[in-house]
Structure formats: structure tokens, C-alpha cells
Amino acid sequence: MSLPSATTGLVLEYNSGILPPPYSHVFRLVLDWSKGNLGAQLDLHYTDREELSEEEIFDEGFSLEDDYRYQGNVPSVWIGPIKQLLQATHWTKKSIDEGGITLTTQEGTKSEGLKIPSNQEEWQLMAQDLIQAIYELEKKEAPLKVQYRKVEREQITDLCLTIHFSNREAVLLRAEVSKKISWEGAIDLMKFVFLPDYRYEQAKDTPGTKRGAYIECGDGFWHELGKGVVNSHASVDAVGKIKAGFDRLLEAN
Q1: Which of 12, 63, 143, 167 is most buried by its number of CB atoms within 10 A?
Q2: Dihedral-angle region of residue 48 (phi above 0 means left; psi in -120 to 50 means alpha; beta otherwise)
């Protein structure tokens, strides 16, 4: 599509569809860059939880106060990526009855009408990242921090990668020296980090010292890649991608 130069904002609406509670939710995210900054309004609501007991909700890692509203600004560094994704978006007439996202572009006070983007996954990821940015700004959640350890013979190498969604910065810490790295590269790596199965019964409170690769995803538990972290789908070698991604960071830094 060709993005009109007069486009000043965007409304994203999402419904998780067939996802069961307590995970099922809807949200409406209104973005406005007409004044140069990025204004944001978020209304997120978890659905159908009346079917569950409080214990069932807690057991899945949720609380009774997960609904969230926000009105304020998000750093303008997000405006460019949003516009780029809009520019690359094509529309579809396919139904999203089983869950999905819709967009409505704004030109001042004029709405261009609700449309369904064909690149659903990209827009859902964009919306998730923006919501995460809001959570960071409001101190609801801390930046994502992933630690990695590689043990070879007598050598132990540690890395810490911190993802700041609020300002789209990825910071790598090694041997007490920090360095900004590619945001896109860091996000691509994170997609693989959360793809495999983590066997918490094998997790430890401290990183391993025997030969191997170990990862800690911000919850204090260390997992050995290939043993405590295993691929959930035979078609995607997520464990191999994680090792290769962090090893490239080690070689480059």
C-alpha cells in the first residue's frame, strides 16, 4: 500500500479469538503522531475469566488485576517503524473470527475505515512491543534481561542482553563493558529464545560450570541448552538458533 502523507495516527484492535481463559483478551491501542510526538491510549481487557476460579487464574501466572489502561506518550523513536510497517502492509478480506488484529488509519479527525492487514503476525508483534514499551514506561514491568553463559574447557564467558522496549534499545554487557547492538537483530534472537520448551524441573539457581551453553531469561532460573531447553517443534531448531545467535554476539564483541 502507499501510505498517505497526511496519515496522522492509527487504531489497532485485537481479539485473541479462540484462545481460552485466562489467556483470552482484547485490546484497543490508539496511536497519534500528529503533533510530532507519539500519543498512545491503551485499553486491555482479559475475557471470560468468570468461568475460572481464582486459584486457576493464579496457577497460570496471572492475577485478578491484569486489565490495564494507559494514556500518555511513547518515545517518538517508534513512529518511524510504525510508518514503515504501514507502508509495507497489504489488506485482506479474510475473516479473523478465530482471532486477529484490525487497523484503522487516521488523517486528522478523518478515519479511513477498519481494515484487516494480511501481515497479521507482524502487526501483532508490533502491538505487543508497543504495549511492552508502555509497561516499561509505567514501571509495571522491567526491561527484558537475558543472560547467557558459554563454557569451553577452562574458559567461561558470560553475556547479558537487555532489551529496552521503551526506547527500542538493545544493550549487551560483557566483562563489565556495555555496548548497544542492533535492535532488529536482538528482537530476532528473542523470538527464538522463547520458542523452545524450558524444563524447569532441571533448572538451577546458578549457571553451570561444566562444558555447555546456559541461559537465564529474567526469572532467576538457569537452563542448559539442549538438556533443560529442548525444541518444541522438529521443524525449527530454536535451540541451535539461540546458541548461534549468542555465539555471534560473543565473536563480534
Answers
A1: 12
A2: left
Question: How far is the C-alpha of 132 from the C-alpha of 26, rounded, in Å?
Answer: 15
What's the gap between Cα 214 and its chain centre?
22
- Number of C-alpha atoms within 13 angstroms, CB side, residue 198? 15
Crossing angle for the helix pair 238-252 and 183-193, to the nearest 10 degrees? 150
Domain ranges of the chain: 9-137, 144-252
What is the share, in percent, of the chain residues with pLDDT greater than 90? 88
Q: Residue 251: exposed, middle, or buried by beta-carbon count in 10 A (0-12, 13-18, 19+)?
A: exposed
Q: List, in sequence order, the alpha helices (H) in the chain.
A: 54-59, 79-87, 120-137, 183-193, 238-252
pLDDT at residue 167 tops 50: yes
Tell me: the pLDDT tens digits for 98-151?
899 999 999 877 788 899 999 999 999 999 999 999 999 999 999 999 999 999
Residue of 135, 157, 137, 139 whose CA lies nearest to 147: 157
State how far the Cα of 183 lies from the Cα of 170, in Å rounded to an integer.
5
DSSP structural state of residue 21: T
Q: What is the pTM of this model?
A: 0.90
Helix (H) or strand (E) holding 107: strand 100-107
